Amino acid sequence: MALSTRLLSKSRQLYGSQAILRQDHAIPVRFYAKEAAPPSLKGDQMLKNIFLEVKKKFETAMGILRKEKITIDPDDPAAVSQYAKVMKTVREKADLFSESQRIQHTIQTRTQDIPDARTYLLTLKDIRIKRGLADELGAEAMMMEALDKVENEIKKPLMRDDKKSMALLTAEFDKINKKLGIRKEDLPKYEEDLELKIAKAQLEELKKDALEAMETQKKREEFKDEAMPDVKSLDVRNFL
Questions:
Q1: Which pLDDT tens digit goes with each residue over 98-152?
Q2: Residue pair 229/207 in contact by the 8 Å Cβ criterion
Q3: Are 133 and 16 in contact (CB under 8 A)?
Q4: What is the 3-state secondary structure (H, E, C) of 168-221?
Q5: I need a labelling partner for 237 at 20 to 30 A (CA). Which of 24, 137, 152, 223 fits?
């Protein structure tokens, strides 16, 4: 059961700054509509509904993991691809967020009431830092330079409801995207590549956990003369 919990919870934050720029926004500035407020529920009923929903998701995920074979071999592209496929199925069937969707949701939640573009970009930076993402492309500096240029041109802070001025900023961001080689039509491929990177990292963690568990077991008297199996030969389904 410990292994199943790891399988369901592992989500390594491997995105560089291009993840936010490429995967969530080819143009980083977006307007988000507020989600409809859930109906008012009494405390006990709300907790019960949450518990039942989580239980349903967990059982759905476990059902898939018990059927699909996972090979713990992060160095085998086929094993990584299969693991990514399985975890994608888990997310889709259990209605769980992918990492990109989590980032997108965080951005939406934290920025929907921000009135000005500068605070919006600073909030994106804060989200990136707190999620351990690296700005390897220097995209943030480019975006702030673009904002400075627009604000100098309009001679006032840029507000997000100023459609005319926001169009100027959008045009500057389009230039940045082009310079960085980011195209909207390539977003699905970026998504796929990032999911494979995450899958590889999660398999590396599972391999590490399995090796540590076997080393701990080997120290026990009844197992000291027993050869430990190759991690790649382990069938995860037997541990769920």
A1: 777 888 889 999 999 999 999 999 999 999 888 777 788 899 999 999 999 999 9
A2: no
A3: yes
A4: HHHHHHHHHHHHHCCCHHHHHHHHHHHHHHHHHHHHHHHHHHHHHHHHHHHCCH
A5: 223
In sequence order, what are the beta bridge partners of 134? 16
Count the Cβ atoms, other than its own, within 10 Å of residue 213.
Answer: 15
Closest C-alpha among 126, 118, 104 to residue 162: 118
The pTM of this model reads: 0.59
Note whether 198 and 100 are within 8 A (CB): no
Q: What are the distances in angstroms from CA 218 to CA 215, 224, 235, 236? A: 5, 5, 19, 19
Kindly state the tokens that stand for 214: 């076997």
- Name the token pair of 240: 């769920």
Q: How far is it, in rounded angstroms, from Cα 140 to Cα 111?
A: 16
